[in-house]
Write a structure and sequence with these properties.
The complex is a heterodimer of chains A (about 375) and B (about 350).
Chain A: H1 2-9, H2 15-48, H3 53-60, H4 66-91, H5 99-116, H6 123-150, H7 154-176, E1 178-180, E2 183-185, H8 213-228, H9 230-240, H10 242-247, H11 252-269, H12 272-279, H13 292-302, H14 307-327, H15 336-380
Antiparallel strand pairs in A: 1-2
Helix pairs in contact in A: 2-3, 2-15, 3-14, 4-8, 4-11, 4-13, 4-14, 5-6, 5-7, 5-11, 5-13, 6-7, 6-11, 8-9, 13-14, 13-15, 14-15
Chain B: H1 2-12, H2 25-38, E1 50-54, H3 64-79, E2 84-88, H4 95-107, E3 112-116, H5 121-127, E4 135-139, E5 153-158, H6 160-174, E6 179-186, H7 189-205, E7 210-217, H8 227-239, E8 244-248, H9 253-263, E9 266-271, H10 274-277, H11 280-283, E10 286-292, H12 294-306, E11 313-317, E12 324-326, H13 335-350
Parallel strand pairs in B: 1-2, 1-3, 3-4, 4-5, 5-11, 6-7, 6-8, 8-9, 9-10
Antiparallel strand pairs in B: 10-12
Helix pairs in contact in B: 3-12, 4-5, 6-7, 6-13, 8-9
The chains are: A mainly alpha (about 375), B alpha/beta (about 350).
Chain lengths: ~375, ~350
């Protein structure tokens, strides 16, 4: 809509400038529309069940206190990592729904390794990151191998592997962990391997976890890999058309294996900020936050697999979850936030589809106009 | 007075009741009690204001959380508490969010805060030191940090094995087939207490009884919210000859009741009197329920705070103080069974029967 309105008014602007403006609008508009639509849908739902949408919006758009802000920052860091893990697969047309399972396996392996204190001191942190990433990669490779050599859809195998992961982690912790209350956990992280966080609010307990910075590093790494390396190019080509990629000499099987492993490696790192920053032990269900892997898929969808988009989507999800606690004092069930999050993802998919079609149509119109003009010129001469 | 006696019970039975402290927590428990004795009374500022944080499921689960709510309601009406706020845990929420819920209560002037369910243990342990003038309680709670005792926290536990002993005895007394079943939600030490007591009670009546045991999940907490899993487990046990199945599986128990209806067999409820909360069709198959008086624990804690001396340290609610028990609604239990159960109850209270906590 806006693109066509702008065209006659900005007749003096160069086509390039117009196109950039158009892509900014078409890039930002869908998520914005999606958020507004999700808020509206949630409000309608709350009103339908006799609640007050005004209270809902007031709570959601209130300024969070320092503690909640810290939670939002840390949670968005973990969600970003999870989103990146999912996006690596999405970019190649792989639906790695197993991020959740790889996240569990990576967290479990990392926590067992770190707690054992095999590596002393701060080096333990680095070594643990390697272990967690390798564990995630190995677990994802099961689905990758099954797909390449047996043609098993990665969606099906990964869903099954998700179930196995949680049960297996629980079994291992019960068998080799220590009792804590009614459940079992891994041994606690030695003190000398607990990194200091960033204390951005002097008065609030807690800090921005040191390893939350991992999200930034991985975000930049992801962008570089996809946009600036040959591997990234082949990955995108395979994602666009695997037959075309095959024809032009890309080893699609190898790409599938590497991409699955890479996605799993990143998924294995998702929980590391929380582990080193605050929890220091692993045990299901109390000392682990299940579900971050699934949320990563939504974050990647919402963020269109772009680094900045993923950061934005993760921040939005973390913000909504962080604010949801206060909904209860307004007499609204906090679960409505799940509805808001779900509707946002649904709406953004629809919005991009609409924008995409509109853009394709306007592109077609532009080309046909140009062709007609050229033909007119030819005829005139 | 009551607190003293329950401390005594907690100490004396640590080895046999609190499986949780069976390994690492064993020394820790006595430390806590010793330290709790040195603790000064928590001085609440202003009138009591209650914050109640529910476990996943919240109000309306017809079980654990609703029972806490009943205790809260009783305390509110009895003591005229003006300010009460409730909160509820979400599925898969982070530890920070749980802590934030408690801090929000404390910051807004609530000075009596109850976490319903052991999932709040860690959060309370972190938050409590920052609010020395707030009395905290965790139902089914434990102290995750062994050396660092929080004086303003009460851990309210139950002797589930004692209550389960009685319903186990009831099952053995009324079973026609000589085979009974147990369905647990998640295979952790808490639910094993139910299993151990149930088996001990049944074997006390009939040493040759055949007990089938199924856990819905090994560690995934989804086992407490999986009626289909509960139904499958119970169907299997009924098919293998069991005619009475006891469940300790939270919301999954509704599936166990459905299986009982379908097979026209019997079941035993848990936590609340489930004859009263289940649907009319299901109720006809629930012969008794193992009562875990979360309402009593909640009420007693709030009462202690209102009286200016909030409970501290570990308290275990047992058969002796009606913290656990069995229900007789529906008149399924015969007078002979009830007489036998009362006899067992007296023996347990007197200490003549020691009920194990581990299967």
């Amino acid at each position: 809509m806006s693109e066509r309105e702008k065209a006659p008014a900005g007749g003096s602007a160069t086509p390039a400038a117009r196109r950039i403006a158009g892509s900014v609008v078409s890039g930002l508009l869908p998520p914005l529309v999606a958020v507004v639509a999700a808020m509206l849908a949630t409000s309608v739902l709350i009103a339908a069940f006799g609640g007050s949408p005004g209270d809902f919006l007031q709570v959601i758009f209130s300024v969070p206190n320092d503690r909640v802000l810290l939670t939002i920052i840390n949670q968005s860091a973990m969600l970003s990592i999870s989103g990146i893990a999912a996006a690596i697969g999405f970019r190649m047309g792989l639906f790695n729904i197993g991020v959740e399972g790889q996240y569990i396996v990576g967290s479990c392996a990392g926590a067992f390794f770190a707690g054992s204190g095999l590596v002393a001191g701060p080096l333990n942190i680095l070594a643990t990151l390697v272990v967690a990433a390798l564990a995630g990669a190995a677990y994802a490779s099961i689905a990758g191998l099954l797909k390449v050599f047996r043609g098993v859809s990665e969606v099906i195998s990964a869903i099954m592997l998700n179930y196995i992961a949680l049960t297996m982690a629980g079994y291992l912790v019960t068998k080799y962990g220590q009792a804590s209350g009614y459940t079992f956990t891994t041994e606690r992280l030695p003190l000398d391997a607990q990194p200091l966080g960033f204390k951005i609010f002097a008065d609030a307990p807690g800090d921005v976890w040191a390893l939350s910075s991992l999200a930034l590093i991985l975000g930049i790494g992801y962008w570089f890999l996809i946009a600036r390396t040959r591997f990234g190019f082949e990955l995108r080509v395979t994602g666009a058309s695997s037959t075309a990629a095959l024809a032009s000499g890309v080893n699609v099987k190898r790409m599938t294996l590497i991409t699955m492993a890479l996605s799993g490696a990143v998924a294995g790192l998702v929980w590391m900020p929380a582990y080193f920053g605050s929890v220091h032990t692993f045990g299901v269900p109390e000392n682990f936050q299940a579900g971050l892997g699934f949320l990563g898929l939504a974050v990647a969808l919402l963020g269109r697999n772009r680094t900045l988009g993923i950061f934005f989507a993760a921040a939005l999800f973390a913000f909504l979850s962080g604010q949801s606690n206060n909904l209860q004092s307004a007499g609204i069930a906090k679960d409505v936030i799940d509805i808001t999050q779900g509707t946002t993802v649904l709406a953004v998919v629809v919005a991009y589809e609409v924008v995409g079609r509109r853009r394709a149509r306007s592109e077609a119109e532009r080309v046909s106009r140009q062709l007609e003009a050229e033909r007119a010129e030819v005829v005139a001469s | 007075m009551r607190r003293l006696s329950t401390y005594g019970v907690a100490l004396a039975t640590c080895g046999l009741i609190l499986t949780a402290c069976g390994t690492a927590a064993d020394d820790n428990d006595s430390d806590n009690d010793a330290a709790a004795a040195e603790c000064e009374t928590v001085q609440l500022e202003g009138d009591p204001q209650v914050g109640l944080a529910y476990d996943v499921g919240g109000r309306g689960d017809q079980s654990f959380n609703d029972s806490a709510y009943a205790g809260l309601t009783q305390a509110v009406s009895e003591f005229g508490i003006a300010e009460v706020t409730e909160g509820e845990a979400g599925q898969d929420e982070s530890e920070d969010i749980r802590e934030e819920r408690l801090r929000t209560f404390a910051d807004s002037g609530h000075n009596v805060i109850v976490g319903v369910g052991f999932a709040y243990s860690e959060a309370v342990d972190t938050v409590a030191p920052d609010y020395p003038n707030v009395a905290f309680a965790v139902i089914d709670g434990f102290d995750p940090t062994e050396d660092d005792v929080n004086c303003n926290v009460a851990y309210l536990g139950f002797a589930e094995n004692e209550g389960s002993f009685l319903v186990g005895a009831a099952a053995a007394l009324q079973s026609q087939t000589g085979t009974i079943g147990f369905v647990g939600g998640v295979n952790n030490t808490l639910i094993q207490k139910f299993e151990a007591g149930y088996a001990a009670g049944a074997e006390a009546v009939n040493p040759d009884i055949n007990i089938l045991t199924t856990y819905i999940e090994e560690s995934d907490p989804a086992g407490f919210g999986d009626p289909a899993g509960g139904q499958a487990a119970a169907e299997g046990q009924y098919a293998d000859g069991a005619d009475i199945v006891f469940h300790a599986a939270g919301f999954s128990g509704t599936g166990v009741f459905d299986a009982a209806v379908a097979a026209d067999k019997l079941a035993i409820g848990v936590d609340s009197d489930q004859f009263l909360t289940a649907g009319p069709e299901q109720a006809q198959h629930i012969i008794t329920s193992m009562l875990k008086r979360v309402d009593t624990a909640t009420y007693e804690f709030i009462a202690s705070a209102v009286n200016g001396e909030p409970d501290q340290g570990f308290t275990t609610f047992t058969l002796a103080d009606d913290g656990v028990g069995y229900s007789t609604s529906g008149n399924f239990l015969t007078p002979e069974t009830i007489a036998a159960l009362e006899d067992y109850k007296a023996q347990i209270i007197a200490g003549d029967i020691e009920v194990p906590t581990q299967p």
